[in-house]
Q: What sequence folds into this?
């Protein structure tokens, strides 16, 4: 028998892991009423990304600010000039949602 809801919980270690410190800082900056929504969106966006490209998802989870293989400004300009469609569009929507949740 399954339940209609599922509880998912885990702990972050901000003192030990830089990416988890970044996540905690972002969540702390949100009003309490928005934290749960942001955590759920981040979790679901991460799972969607893992389904598409597991290696990239795990790499992004480390917040590799120093080693980004692309320029985020040029990506925005390219995206706005050439709106993608289909599966490619979904990737950009997921990426945009993640960037919205975790701005630089």
A:
């Amino acid at each position: 028998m399954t339940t209609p809801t599922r509880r998912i919980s885990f702990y972050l270690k901000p003192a030990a892991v830089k990416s988890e410190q970044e996540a905690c800082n972002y969540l702390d900056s949100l009003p309490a009423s928005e934290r749960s929504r942001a955590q759920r969106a981040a979790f679901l966006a991460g799972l969607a990304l893992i389904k598409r490209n597991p290696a990239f998802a795990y790499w992004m989870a480390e917040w590799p600010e120093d080693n980004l293989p692309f320029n985020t400004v040029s990506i925005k300009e390219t995206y706005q000039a050439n709106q993608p469609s289909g599966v490619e569009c979904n990737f950009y929507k997921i990426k945009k949602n993640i960037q919205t949740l975790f701005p630089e």
About this structure: The chain has one domain: 18-101. The chain has five helices and no strands. Residues 32-52 form the longest helix (21 residues).
